[in-house]
């Protein structure tokens, strides 16, 4: 092992005298040739690690096998065509899922496994997300935008476990109804006031109770109240003016308090009351 430019290089050689064909699984001892593989491993103290492995190619002795020549296989940590050990690839996969392409590539350079943003994206695309076959029975449904104003999908969230169950490619009632038919355990569905979702729940899960979620109820109430005040602003202003005895209000006091906050901020909050009082009175306006 040698350290050069903060890169550790390890050289290994396979000594196994035979291999099994990956297609027909027949044992072979006929060596075709040798070749070198370079693999990336997890970093050591922040330094990159490169493994140089001399591997072999073998002839398959089975005449009926379509694979005539095959490369040497290893039991663990080394995939047939991989350029990184599986444990190194798993770490990059976690970075890819958390940060994405550009940020993930930047972090990979810092931790000693430098790769490009394109590699990060390829690793992410090869990742198989676990399928959630069962839910708690209490789910939430809402739409989300691929491209706002043009293309929308549907997100399903397990309300009890607070986790995303699935993402559907559109928000059509047929797609959601088909998904619900495959999950008969659903008993309660929280949704907004989008009519297509109501129809889909009736078709796909007629046994489920539909609940209007609080967020949209409060948002709709706030919008309705805002529209009411805007449309009747003149009448409300006259009503308020008729109930006021004097023309004065507390607006100027609030303005002076904001000015006092600015002075305190300039003094970094360390001014005593006496010094603060002098500054306020000296600059009274």
Order of helices and strands: EEEEEEEHHHEEEHEHEHHHH
Task: Specify the number of helices.
Answer: 9
State Rg: 34 Å
Structural class: alpha/beta
What are the defining features of this structure?
five-stranded mixed sheet, alpha/beta, Nucleotidyltransferase, domain 5, 285 residues, 3 domains
List the helices and strands and how they pair.
Layout: E1 2-4, E2 7-13, E3 19-20, E4 27-28, E5 31-44, E6 47-59, E7 69-71, H1 86-99, H2 101-111, H3 117-126, E8 138-147, E9 151-158, E10 163-168, H4 173-181, E11 188-191, H5 195-204, E12 209-212, H6 214-231, H7 233-243, H8 251-266, H9 273-282
Word description of this protein:
There is one protein chain. The protein is 38% helix and 27% strand. By secondary structure, it is of the alpha/beta class. It folds into three domains: 2-126, no CATH class; 138-212, 2-Layer Sandwich (Nucleotidyltransferase, domain 5); 253-282, no CATH class. Strands 1, 2, 5, 6 and 7 form a five-stranded mixed sheet that branches. Strands 10-9-8-11-12 form a five-stranded mixed sheet. Strand 1 (2-4) and strand 2 (7-13) form a beta hairpin. It starts with a strand and ends with a helix.
Provide a concise account of the structure shown:
This protein is an alpha/beta fold. The protein has three domains: 125 residues, no CATH class; 75 residues, Nucleotidyltransferase, domain 5 (2-Layer Sandwich); 30 residues, no CATH class. 38% of the residues lie in helices and 27% in strands.
